[in-house]
Sequence to fold (443 residues):
Amino acid sequence: MAAALVARVRVAPAPILLGIAALLAAPLVRADGGELPPWTEPYDVPLPETVRSVVPRKPEVAIYSQASALSTRRGSTIEGAHLAYYGAQRGPGCQGRWLLVGPHAWVCQDVADPSPDEPVLAPLARTENGLPYRYFYAGRDGARGYFNLARALDDAPDQELEPGWSVAIVEERAAHGERWGRTPHGKWFSMRELGPGNPFMFHGEEIEGGKLDVAWVKSDRATVYSTSKGEKATGARVRFELVRIREEKGAKDAAFYRVSEDGAPEQWIRGRDLARPTSAAPPAEVSGEVERWIDVELASQTLVAYEGKRPVFATLVSTGRGAPGTDLGTRLGVHRIWVKLLSTKMDNLEKEEATHFYYIEDVPYVQFFDKAIAIHGAYWHRDFGRVHSHGCVNLAPIDAQRMFFFTAPHMPRGWRAVLPAKPGSGPSAPSEVMERGAVVRVR
Fold:
């Protein structure tokens, strides 16, 4: 249709041709003289005036920083999104046009359709349990997944899960006399072969006034004493219980902490029974008084989120069970988040030397900061405050969600993945627009 329009323009009478050229070349203008979207290259055939959104044709479509497949990736779309449309431009790597769906954000018309529908962005909203999906585990006989639900009982399965392996379910439907669940990747599993996961509702604590006085009981049972000498037991606190540190006495390895309020009967707990974060100055990579960054402390198995020098949130983590520098360790150092994903698959199926294989689809709220090492939610264990992971920094789901919204780069609605923006040019990417990934320090 576009080619036919071009042909008709080329043979049109001169006055009409000049009028069309003037229409294409004259952009909409704001009161301050700047152009308004949608932008179109001068003299190119514009898309219909009815276009309001861009609809990806696949569950995930790549988003680029410029109108070129040779430019850096900015992220990817999420299934079902109708992204707002701001303009179109020709560029390498796309037979159609590149469609502008946000700052530094272009998708190719070859895999996405202009639409007259209003933008509908899948909400990136916080949930009460911190999970973006409902999660299930394959039962003792495993589970089988099919792309074609209508032929699920006739065809060979497209995927087979071992007992205990996990998938997310986004839709349920009745078929073949039973309930079936669809994963975000389009596979259908019989719900009778899956068992629901029970989310862990632990969460960290907001820090008021920059005073980092929180700690959590990390022992299964922590004895409470009436004095700092540990001579008379008066009660106990249980694992994951939050306490406030009012006073400290004794050497580091044998310290006691008072957790009772001033004026109340004294309650002291041994330091070895508590996971207590310690404050630290920001690394040199953090600039300004308000830049947000994350500090992970291996010794205490805690994480503190900062704004400049001010702590604003603290919680428990589980880092790598190996020593730093080993395959199962969390490496020390300062890094920046280089990609954030709403969810991603994690497994060890390619490690032939593994004695136990695991497979988890759609691990939630993943922030990669040191190559393949990430901060992410972990709904499959409750061992926070102790080393547990294969190298990543595990958070309880509610805390993983909290940190995902806290850090840069921020993920636009309708996106499934986002990478830091880089300076660019043109109406879609002014050079001053830039959002680096947040700093993550492991110490």
The longest helix spans residues 14-25. The domain at 292-442 is CATH 2.40.440.10 (L,D-transpeptidase catalytic domain-like). The CA atoms of residues 13 and 19 lie 10 Å apart.
